Structures are given as C-alpha cells and as structure tokens.
C-alpha cells in the first residue's frame, strides 16, 4: 500500500495539495495506468502523478498566442496556456477565483495544463482522486473530467483517459499525515475558501477503509483476488 500526499505552504498557510490513496502492489511498472491526485484550487492547481514530480502552478488560463511552453494546451481546435506563462501575459487571463463555478468548469483544461508541465507521454491513463471544496458538486466534476481525449500538450499530441475514482473534501489529506487524537478539527486555508472539518477516529477509519477499497477495485488487474467489492 502506497500513500501519496503532499502539503504545500503559501504565505505561512498550509494548503492541501491532494491526497491519493494508491493500491500499488499488483500494478506492474510497465502498465500504462497511472494513479494521480488533483486539486484545481482557486489560487493554484496541484497534480501528483505516481512516478513524476509534483506540478504546482497558478490557476490561470489564457488564449494569448505563444510558443509551446510548459502548460500549453490545444484542445478542440483552441489553444490555451495554463499556469505561470498565463499569469505573465498581464491582464489577458481567466482565473479560477473569478467565478465559483470555475473550479468545476475549468477542471479539464487545468488538468491538461498540469500534464503539459510533465515529460511527454503518448498516452496518459489516469486513475484520479480529486479534492473539492464542496462535495455536493462531485457528480458534476466527474462528468467534466471523465472521458477519453486527444489534446496537444506542450506541442505534442497525447491520448488522455481520465477515470475519477473519488472526489474528496479539501483538507482530507491531513487525516493521514499525522497520528490523530480521538477528535479533531481540520482547518484548510485556501486562496478562495477556508474550510473546517470535524473528524472522529471512527470516521477516519471508515474513510480510510472505503478509499482503499475504491482504489484497489479500480487498479487491481482483472482476476486478481484483491479485486473484490465490499
């Protein structure tokens, strides 16, 4: 069992990157399925793909013409740039923080932009855990992300398949980073939201067990004895 999680810090506040629960023992390293965690934050996007460095970039999108810089995406015939290069254009960009719906509506483009910061792959098959400030929007977010696409990432075409395994509340990663008391309140200070979550030890175990089962059932090869539903 491999637990991937990352905490980033901005202006003395700890901002949860994303926690991804990954059952890896039965996945051969040569398989194309990659487990990943994604947070399309108001201030910055964060992507952690197993085997790659963490991508953290400003949640900015621009249509300004530019070269194939990291974060450059061509999708459905339209070119976008996501991240630092978009920010440097000046005022010619859209931000997640400009509209509460952008964290959902922009999620696919910002995920492509994050992938365009990583070394090129001809195929990305992502089993994804996503964090969101309002899990009531989880179904809508999954509809936006799930699917098979053929974007051009930083000048090179890739086949991208996205399967969202779970949408979790922002701040949930703190549950697994430290030994916890019986009762705990988690405060997540973000760029556009401040969230508090009250957690008990029994709830933590339920979340842990359920998440591990979801990941295992979606990553273990067919016929593997661990590939069972509860």
TrEMBL record:
Residues 37-173 form the Actin-like protein N-terminal domain. Transmembrane segments: none annotated. InterPro entries: ALP_N, ATPase_NBD. Pfam families: ALP_N (PF17989). This is Cell division ATPase FtsA. The keyword Cytoplasm does not apply. Keywords: Cell cycle, Cell division. One of its GO terms (biological process) is cell division. The lineage of its organism: Bacteria, Bacillati, Cyanobacteriota, Cyanophyceae, Nostocales.
């Amino acid at each position: 069992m491999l637990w991937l999680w990352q905490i980033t810090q901005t202006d003395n506040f700890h901002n949860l990157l994303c926690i991804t629960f990954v059952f890896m023992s039965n996945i051969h390293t040569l398989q194309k399925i990659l487990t990943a965690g994604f947070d399309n934050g108001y201030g910055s996007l964060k992507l952690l793909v197993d085997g790659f460095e963490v991508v953290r970039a400003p949640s900015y999108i621009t249509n300004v013409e530019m070269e194939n810089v990291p974060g450059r995406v061509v999708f459905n015939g339209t070119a976008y740039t996501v991240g630092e290069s978009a920010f440097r254009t000046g005022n010619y960009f859209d931000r997640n923080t400009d509209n509460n719906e952008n964290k959902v509506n922009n999620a696919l483009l910002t995920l492509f932009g994050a992938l365009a910061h990583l070394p090129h792959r001809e195929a990305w098959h992502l089993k994804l855990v996503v964090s969101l400030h309002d899990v009531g929007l989880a179904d809508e977010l999954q509809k936006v992300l799930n699917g098979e696409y053929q974007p051009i990432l930083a000048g090179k075409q890739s086949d991208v398949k996205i399967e969202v395994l779970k949408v979790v509340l922002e701040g949930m990663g703190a549950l697994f980073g430290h030994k916890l008391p019986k009762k705990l309140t988690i405060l997540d200070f973000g760029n556009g939201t401040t969230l508090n979550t009250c957690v008990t030890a029994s709830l933590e175990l339920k979340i842990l067990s359920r998440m591990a089962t979801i990941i295992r059932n979606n990553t273990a090869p067919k016929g593997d004895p661990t590939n069972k539903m509860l």
